Amino acid sequence: MPPAPAASAVNALMQELPARVLHRDRELIILDKPAGLAVHPGPSGGLSLEAALDALRFEMRTAPSLAHRLDRDTSGCLVLARRRSALRRLNALFAAGEIEKTYWAVVVGSPKAASGVVELALRKLNRKDGWKMVADPSGQSAVTRWRLLGQGDGMSWLECKPQTGRTHQVRVHCAALGCPILGDPVYGAPGKEPHRSDRPLHLHARAVSIPYVERAPPVTAAAPVPAHMRAALVACGWRDEGGRS
């Protein structure tokens, strides 16, 4: 059994989480997950979001549940269900592809067009040194719509809207465009990055739109740009939260 995270680390995270809530109602919460935080504890243990979800109970008797997941190093909008009925509803919406997720990625190089669609089936490849997702026609269907938002200093700023929810989908699809995400240790190209190669992953779950109630406006939220992505986005033309979005 992996070691439990230190109580001090869990307490610090519990103090931080309420201020990172982007939306809350009686059914769901949309949280701005920080980069570097796993949503589930890994095989080696360590701090995870699950260990601190009790901080997001608010007036409810139980802690919320994860309706989906983000990679450890991906920041931004993460959806939580506050009731079992809400979890069932959200699971159905995610499975049907009715929840719109918008990611911002800073990638190395430049795509050959201003927008497009990547349709590239993926499967998990297990290796002695770990696992990764690889393109395979016999794998699970994976589709990502993307468009170019800006460029500069050898980098491009892409908006990606995954139409399916495969593991590492946006990361693999950006690499398939010939433009791996800046700081990606698995699918990236550290030797080709225009700056240092030890940067954190520059992938941010920027926004989410959830048609939770039929014939009612969707529940929406947008997560602010994390500090580690600001310089690269500015180089690509981003002008702060009051500017281009």
Automatic annotation (TrEMBL):
Pfam families: PseudoU_synth_2. Residues 28-176 form the Pseudouridine synthase RsuA/RluA-like domain. Keywords: Isomerase. SUPFAM superfamilies: Pseudouridine synthase (SSF55120). One of its GO terms (molecular function) is pseudouridine synthase activity. GO terms for biological process: enzyme-directed rRNA pseudouridine synthesis. PROSITE patterns: PSI_RLU. Belongs to the pseudouridine synthase RluA family. PANTHER family: MITOCHONDRIAL RNA PSEUDOURIDINE SYNTHASE (PTHR21600), RIBOSOMAL LARGE SUBUNIT PSEUDOURIDINE SYNTHASE D (PTHR21600:SF44). This is RNA pseudouridine synthase.
